[in-house]
Amino acid sequence: MRIRTEHLFFCYEGGRPAVQDISLDIPTGTLTVLCGVNGSGKSTLLRLLADLAQPSSGQILYDHGKKTDYKTAEAVSMVFQQPETQLFAGTVHKDIEYGLMERGVSKEKRTEIIAGALAKTGLAYDEFAGRSPFLLSGGEKRRVCIAGALAVQPGLLILDEPTAGLDPQAAQALLEMVQQLRSSGLTLIIGTHDLDSFLPVADKVIVMKQGAIHYNGPAPALTADPGLLADAGLTPPVYASMGRRAVQHGLLEAVPDNLEELLIGLEKHPLPMPQTDRWPAGTGASARSSAMSPGNQNTKTSEQHSAEYSLKGTWKRDHSPRSSRTERVQTIIRPGNPRLEQNTPRRPGWQGLDPRAKWLGMILGSLVLLGMNTLLPLLLTAGLLAGLAASARISWRRAFRFFRPFLLMFLFLWLLSGLSWSSPDFALGPLSLSYAGLVRGGINVLRFLLLIALGFLFTETTTGAPLREGLEWGIAPLRTLGIRTRNWSLAVSVTLQFVPWILGKLAQLQLALGSRGRRARGVARWSPRQIALIIVPLLILVLGMGDELATAVESRGYDPAKQRTPVYQLRWSRRDTLAALGILAVAAMLWWVARIS
Predict the structure, then answer these.
(1) What are phi and psi of 555, to 5 degrees?
(2) Where does the record place the ABC transporter domain (predicted)?
(3) Tens digits of per-residue pLDDT, 238-262?
(4) CA nearest 40: which of 222, 159, 207, 189?
(5) Domain ranges across the chain
(6) What is the mean pLDDT of the chain?
């Protein structure tokens, strides 16, 4: 499949461009490497090419100039960096079968296609088809994901960081598999930082820089001119750097295009073995001391060489006494250190309030909301939260993405609350909808949505360290009762920050589903079938993250009985006092409105 882009643009919320004026022409059957530093627009461009995101302007053309649509885009498969966010079914067979079912492949043909796709990735169908994909090794998971992408017989296969997290043996096996796929006529685009592995086999290399194309051409030009990669913030492959130095020393005639050429060239110029002892046998102590005397400027001890060694001025040994070094470190992390406080500037506006004031608003707001049973105070609270979100410059798209998973659930609960066996309002067969029940259920649903909105506003405007320090300060008096408040503050802060992480994983799972089947849009992404496919891998990811957090806490020697050095200094100012008084006044007003309405 040939793919072309014409003046492709993509902008994030707020108009910030991620991809700018991208025009490409990738021929059929070629292997193209797409590289760039984090934030260069590489991943965004890959998703645009896979039709998992829509460009702000410009167009993508496949094959013979047909403009991309759902039918054409189904000929593109994409495999993401993390295999655990792309596996959905209980067995390898069913996981690969999903894409075939989405494309209407008959059941009789599926087994043969799945076996062939697994064979292309080096996995035997009889051995792996019945196994759970969640229990495979990292390399095997990656191969299953690629097999699922190949089963639908795409014309273009996109791989995002395919060797990330793999051991050298697994990475080499995957590289060989990629070369075999390219030789079969499949067009491949590989986004990677692993230039040592993929540059030697690439037909074309595209280097991204700040959302635009910095270089588009053959790989040898990049290895011959190190400035092309360096200007984009990338490090040339090791074989190119070593080969360039060998050329400078007359060991090679030209910079090699791969590691094999470098080794073959260096075999013609064997290097001398290093001398482990610079003093010949029998040399006396007097001769050695004379050679190392202050008058001899050409001789230094190995320790002096190590102390003075530096690589382009980036590292030098610290000769100061250990005690003075320790004092400097303690000075840097000492509570109240102005240098530390300067590194944690306050956010603008009310976002920069002391976290204790924000905790006060969070707790009072939640209590007042729980006591609201009428519509008027709930609407007043909704307007207040909307105004705070607008002043914090939280975009409506960001807020909508956060609330979207909750909307269908709360809509279902609202309708369920209105069902009745005896109400004459709206007959639905044996059941009926009660107007009073709908009103009562709508108030309950709105109340819980506002509680979620309050938490969302709190976590969006308060980072992890201030959040935890403010909570730990508030519950510190409980220590006199023997309660380990550090455990509480750690659990609450992790829980509050866990929500954005879960939403991010949900987005990744949705993208993976889109890459394997229909590109669902809007509400269709949250259909019962989509949710059923996502729920199991999401739970596995959450449990895995919980296990990693527990391991991290244990590995750091976390002791809840010991005091710790805070990473954020709480500073209460006059502005915080005024804000706390304002919070108390608003909470009292809303409580009064709730009582009289």
Answers:
(1) -65, -25
(2) 3-235
(3) 888 888 888 888 888 888 888 888 8
(4) 207
(5) 1-75+186-235, 238-266
(6) 75
